[in-house]
Structures are given as structure tokens and as C-alpha cells.
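Give me C-alpha cells for this 172-residue protein.
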Amino acid sequence: MKKLIVGLTVGMLIGSATVALASPSTVQATLQKYRIVINGKTQSSTTNQLSYKGTTYVPIREAAKLFHYTTNYNSKANSIEFTSNIGKDEWITLLDLQALSKISISPLADKEGAYEITRAGQSLFIIYGGEFKDGDSTLMSDVNNKQFHVKKTLGTLLFNKQDMKNAGYIVF
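Here you go.
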């Protein structure tokens, strides 16, 4: 009798495990191609997006590319690393310029997004960043009439590195 109970119990366990493994887990989602707009500018997407239960999923490399980042998978740390491409090569951010050229940035109280750039107490130039929209660019001059190009990308003011170097600012 004891063998019969053990046999039935083992048989039921094996049978229920088989049923549990056989039941498929399916997800109902749709692939769609959305128009992606970042700061008012339409960006080109090379992949479809997945919509599931009211949430849209974008492949991580695609999203990073749209925001000017590169991605790298680090298998040792089991992590995904993002590196910004903004300000690389020929452009530098105002904060990077501040760190390298030892300039000071002071917000102007009377105008939103406006900053006075100084070095050793001497005013170098004033920038009205609030007047820039993404994609805008202009040519500016400092107090020594040295000209440099400024543009706004993804909400960040960028300065042309070569222009800033020619104007006597330290950039790498």
C-alpha cells in the first residue's frame, strides 16, 4: 500500500509539472511606427516601437541614438553604459568651457536663461540662452570682438571649440 501511495504521488507531481511547463505564456502587443518628436523636431527612427498595455517600448540603442548617446554593454559588470555625444568633437558646453577656461557664469536676474560670463571680475560676454530654441545657432562676439558660433541642441548651449580657442579660451 505504501508503494502505491508513493507511486501515485510521484506520478501526480510529474503530471502537474508537465502541465505547468506546457502552458504557454503569451503577450499580446503591437508593433507600430510612431513619429518621434524631440523638443519640437521630428527625429528619424529606424525601428518599430512595441506597444503593450498602454506603454510604448523603444529599443534602448535607438532611444540613446535619438538623444545623441552611444551605448555599450559591459558584460563583466552586466551593465549598459551611456556616453553623451553632445559637445564632442567640435562643440563644447558652457559648463565645460567654465571648467577649462576658469570663467564664471552668473545668471542675470532680469532675463530668464541669460548669463554673464566673466573671468577675474571682467565681463567677457552675455548670452541670452532663453531666446534660443533647439536647432538655433548664431555668431556672437566677446568684449575683445572675438567671434564664436553658439548653437542649442537638446536644451544645451554649445560653443564651437575652434572659435573659442581662436578667441583665447582654453578648450581641449
